[in-house]
Amino acid sequence: MIELIAQVIVAGILLGGVFALIASGLNIIFGVVRIINFAHGELVMLGMYATFFLHSIWGIDPYLSILAVAPALFLVGVIVQRLVIQPILDASAISKIFATVGLSLVLMNFALILFGGDFRSVRTSYSDSTIGIGPINVNIPRLIAFVVALVLFAGLYSLLRYTFIGKAFQAVAEDRSTAQLMGIRVERLYLLAFGLGAALAGVAGALLMPFATVYPTVGISYTLIAFVVVVLGGLGNMTGTLLGGLIIGLTDSFSATFLSPSLSTATYFVLFVVVLLVRPSGLFGKGKGTEEVGLR
Amino acid sequence: MKHRSSLLLALAALLVLAVVPVFVRGIFIQGIFISIFFYTGLTAAWNIPVFGGKLSLGQAGFFGLGAYTAAILYVDYGIVPWIGAFAAILVALLGALVLTPSLILLRGPFFTLASLAFAEVLRLVAIYWRGLTGGSTGISIPFEPGWQNLTFETNVPFYYISLMLAATSVGISYTIYRRAFGYHLRAAASDEEAAQALGINTSRSHVVAFLWSAGITGMLGAFYAFYLYTLEPNTFFSLALFSLQPALNGIIGGMGTVWGPVLGSAVMTPLAEFLRIYLGDVQEGLNFLIYGLVLILVVQTIPGGIVSVLSRLSRRLGFRSEEASAKRGNDK
Amino acid sequence: MSGLRIEDLAKSFGGVIAVDGVSFEVGEGEIVGLIGPNGAGKTTVFNLISGLFPPSRGRIYLADTDITSLPAHRRSLLGVGRTFQVVRTFTEMTVLENVMVPALARDHDLREAREASLEILERVGLHDQAFSSTHNLTLAQRKRLEVARALAAKPKVLLLDEVLAGLNPAEVSQALPLIPQIREDGVSVLVIEHLMTALMSVSERVLVLDQGELIASGTPDEVANDSKVIKAYLGDEAASA
After folding, report:
1. Are A243 and A234 in contact (CB under 8 A)?
2. How far apart, in Å, are the Cα atoms of B33 and each of B19, B245, C215?
3. Residue C223: what are its φ and ψ, rounded to 5°?
4. Which among A64, B212, C48, C93 is most buried, taking Cβ atoms within 10 Å?
5. How many inter-chain contacts (B to C, CB under 8 Å) are there?
6. What does the pLDDT average to over C87-100?
7. Of the segments A256-265, B262-271, C13-22, which one has the largest average pLDDT value?
8. Closest CA to C5 of C32, C33, C26
C-alpha cells in the first residue's frame, strides 16, 4: 500500500510539472496582455495534434518535434493576439471572456472537422519504459516531460527576471501607459507575450503526447487545469504556479487511482471551491494585477 | 409615460403570439415557437446577472437540476409537476448557493469558469449516480395525458405554457432592470468600487441577481422535462444547449438590456435549428465553429448586439435625438 | 462633536509604509485641506477612511461611531462620501442616472430619487446635461458629476480628492465656490488639492502629510510659513532661506 501511494505521489508530481508549464503560459498572457485565455487548453491540444502528425506521418520523435511545435504555436499565438485579442483590448470584461470562449469553440471544432473525433496517441519505443528509483517505477516519458517542463519553467523565470524583454513585460504588466510613454512598443510586446504563452502550451502538449491521448475536446480539461493551478498558486505568481501545478498533479493522480479517471474534473472543481472559501487569494498570495481580474 | 410604449408593444406581441396556434397547425413550426419561447426565458434569466456584469456559463447546471428534480419527484413519488416545479426552483437555488462564494470572491473569467465547471460536475454526477438519475439511460416520463401531469397529446398546451414562462422570465428581468435594484446592478457593472463607495452592497446585489437567474432557469428546466418527457444527462446538462446557446442569444441580441434576450432568441433559435439540421449533417462541429466565429465577430464589431444597432439606426434616421433616447434609456 | 476623527492610522503595503500613525480630527461643517508632496500618502488616507482597504493599525470614527471594521458600502450609508482622483463615473449610465444611484442605495423610490438628483444637478450646474451620456461631458463637468453623485449620498463627511486637477483657471474659479456651499449643509469637508492658492483660500485649517506622517497642522498661513512644510516640498535649502 505504501508503495502504491508512493507511486501515485511520484506520478502526480511528474504530471504536476507539466501542468505548471501550461499554467505559466496562461500567466504570461494574463500578466502582460491582461486577458484570461479561455482557449488556452486548445493551444495545448494543437501542440498535441502537431506532435501526433509529425510522428505518424514522418516518424519524428515527439521530443524532437518540439523544435517545430514551439515556433508553430508561437506563430498561432501571435496570430490570435493580432486578430482576436487586439481589437477588443479596451472592450468590457464580459466581451473579452466571450472572445476567448469563441476562440476556444473555433479551435476545438476546427480540430474536430480537420482531424475527426477519434482519440489519437503516440506510442514510441520507450513509451512504456520505466526506470527504477528505489522501490518505485518511474515511467520514462513522464520523467522526461517533468524535467523538460522544469527546465523551461526555470528558463521562463530567468527570462522574466534578468532579460530586457522580461523587464519590459513587467513594466507593461505594472503600468501600460507609462511603459508606452517610455518607448516600449506595447503592441509588439503583446504579440510576443501571447506567442510565448502559446508556445509554452504547445510544448507542454508535445511533452504530454508520449503518454496522453488527444481528441478535439481535450482542451477543455487543460484549460480547467490551468485555471485551477493559477487560482491555487496566485495569478502572476511564478513559484505559486509551480507549487499549484504540483498540487493539481497530485490531486489528479490520487483521484484517478482511488476514485475514477473521469471524476478528475469534479475533484479539481471541489478543490477550486474549497481553496476559494479558505484562501481566495490563492494559497501562495497574489502576483501583480490580480485585483483587475478578480481574486481579491 | 414614454417607456410604457415598449410595454404596450410587448403586450401587443403577446396577444399576436397567443393567436398564432390557431393558424399554425404544423407540429414542426409549433415546436420552433416553443423552442423560441423556452430560449427567450433562458436567455432573459441568464441576462439578469449580466446587468451586474457577471457572466455565468453554468445555466445548464440549474436547468438540469430543475428538470431532474421535477421528473424524479413525479416518476418516483407521484408528485404533480406543478408542485414539482417549486421544488425544482428550490433545488436550483441551493445549487446557486454553492456558487455564491465564487461569485463574490472572483470577478470575471474565474467566476465564469467556476460556473462552467459547476455545470460539468453536475452532468457527471447525473451520469454516475445511477440510483437517483438513471445514469446515462436517463429517466422516461410515462405518457399519461392530463393537465395535472403536464403531459399532452398535442404541442398546443406547451405552446401557451412556454409563452407564459418566457413572459414571466422577461417580465422579471424587466422589473429588476427598472427598479432601484437594476440601478445597483448597473452601477456595480460599471465600477464596482465606486458603487460600494456610494453605499451599494454589490456582493449582495450580485447574489440576489444570480439567485433569480438560477431559480427561473430551474423552473424552465422542470417544464422542459415534461415537454421532452425523456431526460438524459448529456441533453439536460448540455453546456452547448443550455449554457452557451442562451449566452450566444444574449450577446447577439444585446446583453445587459431587457429586450436583447428576446430579439436574440427570436433570431438565433430558428437559425441554430437551421444550422444544426443542415450543417450538423454535412459536417459535425461546423455549426459550433460558426458559433465561435460569430462570437468573436460580434464582440469585435457590435458588442451591444442587435439592440445597439437598432438604437443607433433610429437615431441616425432621426427618429429621436440622443438626449431623448437617453431619457428613454430606461426601457431598453 | 466631531465629524471625522482618525487615531494612529497606519497602512503598509508589503514592506512599504504608506501611512504611519496619522491622527487628526475634522469638525462638523469644517473645511480642512490635506496637502503634501507626491507620494505622501494623502490618497491612501482617503482610501482608508472610505474603506477601500483595511488599515494596518488605528481607528476611524465617524461622528464618534467606530467605523474601522465596516465595509465600504456601510461607511457610505453611515455618511462617508468621497470623490476619486481619477474620475470614476458610471459610463454606461446617463448623468442623471449616475446621481440617482446613491439615492437609490438608500431609498427605493425612483420618483423621489429622480427629483432629488435633478436638484443636486442644478446646484452643481449640470442640470442641462441631465440626460446626456457621460461620454459627452468635459473633464470639468465630469468632476462636477463626481461631486454631485457624492452629495446625493447625503454624506456627513465628504472627501474631495483633487477635484480641481486638470481644470483650467476659468474652470477652477467656477468650481471652487462649490466647496464652501457643501459645508453649509453641515458636511465636514476634507480636501486634497495640489493647487495651493485654491486650497488655502477655501480651507479653515490645513494638515500636511509627508512620507506618511503628519508633519504640520494649523491655519493656512501658519502652515505656509512652517519650515518643516517648506522643507518637505522644496528641500533643506529653501527651508533655511
Report:
1. no
2. 12, 16, 73
3. -70, -40
4. C48
5. 91
6. 93
7. B262-271
8. C26
B165 is in which domain, residue-wise? 4-331
- Summarize the confidence of residues C172-186 as an average pLDDT: 86
Q: Which residues of B touch A108 (CB under 8 A)?
A: 285, 288, 292
- Residues A56-91 pLDDT 10s: 999 999 999 999 999 999 999 999 999 999 999 888
CATH classification at residue A236: 1.10.3470
Q: Are B67 and B231 in contact (CB under 8 A)?
A: yes
In this structure, the answer to whether residues C128 and C24 fall within a common structural domain is no
Domain count, chain A: 1
CB contact under 8 Å between C101 and B179, yes or no, is no
Q: Does any domain span residue A127?
A: no
Chains interfacing with C (3 or more CB pairs < 8 Å)? B
**Which pLDDT score is estimated for C78?**
95
Structural domain including C34 reads 2-79+156-240
Give Cα separations from C44 to A244, C66, C89 (angstroms): 33, 19, 20
pTM: 0.89
- List the chains bordering chain B where 3 or more Cβ pairs fall under 8 Å: A, C
Q: Is a pLDDT exceeding 70 seen at residue A293?
A: no
Look up the ipTM and state it.
0.91
**Looking at the complex, does the CB of residue B191 fall below 8 Å from at least one CB of chain C?**
yes
What is the chain B residue with the closest CA to C148? B198
Nearest CB among B183, B196, B324 relative to C73 is that of: B196
**B125-170 pLDDT, tens per residue?**
899 888 888 888 889 998 888 888 888 888 889 999 999 999 999 9
- Which residue among A36, A223, A265 places its CB closest to the CB of B124? A265
In a domain, A261, yes or no: yes
Q: What is the CATH number of the domain that holds B30?
A: 1.10.3470
Q: Is C84 on the interface with B (CB under 8 A)?
A: yes
Domain for residue A125, yes or no? no
Question: In degrees to the nearest 10, what's the CA dihedral of A205, A293, A97, C136?
Answer: -150
Q: From B250, which residue of chain A is nearest by alpha-carbon distance?
A: A98
How close does chain B come to C231, measured CA to CA in Å?
35
